[in-house]
Structures are given as structure tokens and as C-alpha cells.
Design a protein that fits this description.
The chain is α/β, with parallel strands linked by helices. It contains eight helices and 13 strands. The longest helix is centred in the C-terminal third of the chain and has 15 residues.
Length: 286
């Protein structure tokens, strides 16, 4: 697995990208230097870019979030989120129409058009987790006591964001996946939507084919991500090549300088989790 400094050395091997968003394109506060230009250049040379995010929001709201951070619409062809898949499942009413929502109010767009109501814990038929109520201060242990009666009642939990943690500026914050993991460890039933789980990749392939106007073979698709347990695990499980971005959530495990990862530490980190990547780089730059 080579450690590369420029995406231009790898790009010609692929017709399309499944590119993660948070940790690859931005840190929650601003876009990383050069990343928008890298995607724009790739598209100008004929490549297709589908942003594949574990954001617990419908994809149509993401441009209004990432645009102000420095990722313009012409840097990508489309967006697919775990929120899209979650909303489709909610609309099926497979678990009923009474939901206890654990997460901030900014995620309530998931419920629009689904016919599902947000109700109290006592009235709920199931739980939807999009993240902590206040991710600036809360972590999974804050939810152990509240989850106990819900697990005892046998309420299934839908996780709309399998990420465990992400970087927000210089701070690490917990995501929905951390809460869902705890709920499962406590004996509760958890249903995940998003990476690394297979269904989101089936939809992603379909979307890429629509964008390209033809069938894009798996060997011509490159996944790009910084999350070992989501992006890299998901791509490995789907037989897709993956470019590991070391400067995101795994930066501390790849050396003291996020911009200059230690090749031996990067390889050891992947080997520790029995994962593999075709290449690694600190930031996505052309």
C-alpha cells in the first residue's frame, strides 16, 4: 500500500468516486485546502463523483451545509446519505408510526413526508438515533440509564448515522453510531443505515450508473474515506478499492503530524483491523 501525496497519480485508474464527506472534504468547520479543486479537476477529466455520507439528513439539504464550508456544487455529481435510506425505511412504516427521536432538532427533516410522528419514550414503538441531543458535551455513557427501560421493552433502534466519532474543528464529537453500539451491547435490537452496511452501496452503484449513463464496473470505482470502521470496512466488504485518508479521524494513530503520516504506522493500523487500501494520503489534493 503506497503512501501518496497527489491524487493525480491514482485518479486515471478509476471512472467514478464514492467519496466520504466529513473528515475527507471538511472538518465540520471548513473545507480542507485543495480538496474541492481535486474533485473539480477529476470531474473535468471525465470522472464522476458521488458523495456518500453517513449524515443523518436527506441528501437534498447537504449542499446548503457543505457549500458554505467551501465545497461548491460543481465539485460533485450527486449525494447519497444514510439519511436518505433511513427516511425510506421510516416511510415504509415497517416498525410503526410512533417514534422516539434521540438527536438534535436539526435532524428532524428525516421525518418529513414519512407519516411517522415524534413521540415520547412512553408512547414509542421504536427509536431513531441520529446522534446525541447535545454532541458538544454528551457521549454514549450519558444514555446508558435512559436506554435501560427501552431495551427492557424490546424497542428496536434505527441508527441513521453509524459513525462513532467525527472531527469538528479541533474537537472530536460522538455520533449516532456510538449510541447505537451501546444500545446493542445492552441487548437491544439495532438496525443500521449507511456505511459500512451493504444496502447503501447497492443504492450507490445504481446512482453512479445513472450519473454515468452506463454501468460502471466495480473495478473502476474508488471509495475514498477516513473512517476505518465505516469507509474502509464498507469498501473492503463490497470488493471496492479504497483510498484511505489518514488526516481525518485516524490522524492521531498515523503519527504526530497529520500532514505527514508515518507509513509504518498507517500500514500497522490497517493490519490491526485486517483491512486493506490501494493507497493512503493525508489529504485529498490533486
Amino acid at each position: 500500500m503506497p503512501l501518496i501525496s497527489r491524487f493525480s497519480s491514482l485518479a486515471p485508474r478509476y471512472d467514478a468516486l464514492l467519496c466520504d464527506v466529513w473528515g475527507v472534504l471538511h472538518n465540520g468547520k471548513r473545507a480542507y485546502d485543495g480538496v474541492a479543486e481535486a474533485l473539480i479537476t477529476y470531474r473535468e477529466q471525465g470522472g464522476h463523483v458521488l458523495l456518500l455520507s453517513n449524515a443523518p439528513r436527506p441528501s437534498d439539504v447537504l449542499p446548503t451545509i457543505i457549500g458554505p464550508l467551501g465545497i461548491p456544487p460543481h465539485a460533485y455529481d450527486g449525494i447519497l446519505t444514510s439519511g436518505d435510506a433511513t427516511r425510506s425505511h421510516l416511510a415504509s412504516h415497517a416498525l410503526g408510526t410512533a417514534c422516539y427521536h434521540v438527536g438534535p432538532d436539526r435532524d428532524v427533516a428525516l421525518f418529513e413526508g414519512t407519516g411517522v410522528m415524534r413521540v415520547s419514550e412512553a408512547e414509542a414503538a421504536f427509536i431513531l438515533v441520529t446522534g446525541p441531543f447535545d454532541d458538544e458535551v454528551e457521549g454514549p455513557e450519558d444514555y446508558r440509564a435512559p436506554f435501560m427501560p427501552l431495551v427492557a421493552r424490546g424497542l428496536p433502534l434505527i441508527c441513521a448515522n453509524p459513525d462513532i466519532m467525527v472531527e469538528r474543528g479541533s474537537k472530536m464529537i460522538y455520533c449516532g453510531g456510538a449510541l447505537a453500539r451501546l444500545y446493542g451491547e445492552m441487548g437491544g435490537q439495532v438496525i443500521y443505515f449507511g456505511k459500512p452496511h451493504g444496502p447503501i452501496y447497492d443504492v450507490a452503484r445504481q446512482r453512479l450508473n445513472e450519473i454515468a449513463g452506463r454501468v460502471v464496473a466495480d473495478e473502476r470505482v474508488l471509495a475514498i474515506g477516513d473512517g476505518l470502521m465505516t469507509d474502509v470496512t464498507g469498501a473492503n466488504g463490497q470488493g471496492l478499492d479504497v483510498l484511505f485518508i489518514t488526516g481525518g479521524i485516524a490522524a492521531a494513530d498515523c503519527g504526530p503530524d497529520p500532514e505527514h503520516p508515518d507509513p509504518q504506522l498507517v500500514r500497522a493500523l490497517l493490519e490491526k483491523h485486517a483491512l486493506h487500501a490501494v493507497a493512503a494520503m493525508p489529504r485529498l489534493v490533486w
